[in-house]
Design goal:
Distance between the termini: 10 Å
Helix content: 40-55%
Shape: elongated
Largest sheet: 6 strands, mixed
Structural class: alpha/beta
Number of helices: 14
Low-confidence stretches: none
Oligomer: single chain
Radius of gyration: 26 Å
Number of strands: 6
Strand content: 5-15%
Amino acid sequence: MNKNIQNNQCYFKISQENPESSLDSFYIFDKKSSNLEKYIKNTKEIKEILTTIKMLQKKKENPKTINKYFEELQKSLSEFSNCSEFICFVNACDNTLDAVKKDLDLIKKITQRYFSRRLLSDLIPEEWIQAILDSNSSRKKGKCGELKLISILKNLGFKEVKNWEDFNKSNKCVAQFSKVFSVKKVQENLDIKIKAKKQGKKLDLIIKYKNKIFLVEAKHLNTSGGGQDKQISELIEILNLKEKTLDISYISFLDGSYSNILLSNSKAGDKLKTQRKEIKKYLKKNPNNYWLNTTGFKNLFSDLVKS
């Protein structure tokens, strides 16, 4: 262990004493969509076609004529259709934009349900289209945790590398798991096992400082529940991995409001109690591994670069 590096219990305690902020700029998407006008234009087009179809049906026009407008409706559907009331209704009918775009009979059936169960208004408020986009912002968060950690490391003088040549030449770098830095290549080039239950388990980051390697799994959680419990279990599993050399460490990184709950001493149900117990158990069992939040991560690598 580097002389300036504290034990994993120290950084765990630092993480406990420094909870995550409720507002983390790396996970905030509060700017208006640059494509807002395209969403508005497409929503308007869909409404106009639906209005025409409804009017023609009311007048009992020739089905062939009406059919042409259903085809026009299909053609109008695009990547900017997801904020229209119609496609939101399609989703409520257990279907997708792609499904109705390909299936003429399906779009006809759903349109009839739409006419009978929803109001067809010509209003297209910019605010609610942006609100729908805002409600889907969680989909953008996939790589945010990794980018946040890379940013922290860059501020400490680490270089992000994209190939093994640069990785091997550098004493202070970080790489994202990718096709170049695949699990197989990492295992071969670093002579490590990564023996997770799920074969070929891909982590998020590989951090190198001199002869020391850190393999990082990063997650961002704001709520508990089935899917979230599975992700916590994955982090706990990473904490229990071990390599033959002490130069390889595993880091389980968790931020978001659930990290604060997990690291606190608040009252807990059985699931949360078990999670807390397992984290502490594996930290003791594997002193070379770390469970960190943002402040814990910053402190660990700040200490490392001082050594």
